[in-house]
Design goal:
255 residues, single chain, 5-stranded antiparallel beta sheet, 17% strand, 5 strands, Arc Repressor Mutant, subunit A, alpha+beta, Beta-Lactamase
Length: 255
C-alpha cells in the first residue's frame, strides 16, 4: 500500500509537499535529508542511513556496500552487526523485508534499528532507521507505518542509486511532471476552500515557485520581466495573507 493511500495521510497537503521534495532530490546530496525529514515527522528517530549492497553472482556473500546518504545526528551510534540468519534472509529475499533489531536491556551504546530492504537481481537497497538506546524501541504501530512507507521509499532509493551510478544530476527543488500536477491540484483546491480568487498569471507564478522554478525561469516562460514576476507574487501573497515563497508553501500546507 502506498503512503498516500492511507486514510490518515490521503488529504495531508504537507505530506504531498514533502514527497514532492523527496522525489525532486533523487540523485542529489539532499536526498537523505529530505527522507529523514519526511519519515522523522511520522516516526521519531535519531538517524537514517541509506545504502546499496552488491552480492556475488551466486548471491551467497556481500561483495560491496555503498553508502547512498545519511541524515540526522552526526555523532556515531553503535550498531551491532547482523547475525548470520538475518544476513541470509537479506541475501535470499524475494519480497521487501523489514528487520527490527532492539537493544537488549542493560546494553550500553547500541542503537535500536529498523532496516527496510528491497532487491533487484544481486542488488539490495537498505533504509536503516536508528533510535537512541535510551529511548524505547520501535513500537508495532511504528513498524507497521514504516512498512507502509517502504512501498513508496524503497523504489525511490533504488532510483536515487541509479542516478548516482550514472552521475545524473537534477536541479535541487525541480519536480517531475506528476508531482507538479499534484501540487497544482492542491493549490487550486486550497484556493476554492478559502474562496480566494487569483488571476491566471498570479496562479502560474505561485505554482511555478512552489514546483521549484526561479524568478528568471518563470519570466522567460511567461515572456515577461523579472520585476513582473515579483509583482504577481506580491499581489498573490497579499491576497493569501502570507509573504514570500516560504509563506506560500506554509499556506498550501495549511499552516
Amino acid at each position: 500500500m502506498k503512503l498516500t493511500d492511507s486514510p490518515a495521510h490521503r488529504h495531508d497537503p504537507l505530506l504531498y509537499l514533502q514527497l514532492g521534495a523527496l522525489v525532486a532530490s533523487t540523485g542529489d546530496s539532499t536526498f537523505a535529508e529530505q527522507m529523514f525529514e519526511l519519515v522523522g515527522d511520522l516516526v521519531p528517530m535519531h538517524r537514517l542511513d541509506l545504502s546499496e549492497w552488491t552480492l556475488d553472482s551466486q548471491q551467497t556473500r556481500i561483495q560491496a556496500v555503498k553508502a547512498l546518504g545519511s541524515a540526522g545526528h552526526a555523532q556515531a551510534v553503535n550498531t551491532r552487526p547482523l547475525r548470520h540468519p538475518l544476513l541470509q534472509s537479506i541475501m535470499r529475499m524475494e519480497d521487501p523485508l523489514l528487520i527490527q533489531i532492539n537493544t537488549p536491556v542493560g546494553a550500553q551504546g547500541d542503537a535500536h534499528q529498523c532496516k527496510l530492504v528491497s532487491r533487484s537481481g544481486n542488488r539490495r537497497w537498505v533504509i536503516c532507521c536508528f533510535r537512541q538506546p535510551s529511548q524505547r524501541a520501535f513500537s508495532l504501530a511504528e513498524l507497521a507505518l514504516l512498512k507502509t512507507l517502504s512501498d513508496t521509499l524503497l523504489p525511490l532509493v533504488e532510483h536515487h542509486a541509479q542516478l548516482l551510478h550514472s552521475a545524473g544530476q537534477r536541479r535541487p527543488g525541480q519536480l517531475l511532471p506528476d508531482e507538479a500536477g499534484t501540487l497544482r491540484q492542491l493549490f487550486t483546491d486550497r484556493l476554492e476552500q478559502e474562496a480566494i480568487r487569483l488571476s491566471s498569471r498570479e496562479q502560474e507564478v505561485c505554482i511555478g515557485l512552489l514546483t521549484g522554478d526561479t524568478v528568471p525561469q518563470l519570466a522567460l516562460r511567461l515572456h515577461v520581466k523579472n520585476s513582473s514576476i515579483e509583482t504577481y507574487l506580491k499581489r498573490a501573497t497579499a491576497k493569501l495573507g502570507v509573504s514570500g515563497r516560504h509563506g506560500l508553501a506554509r499556506w498550501l500546507a495549511g499552516r
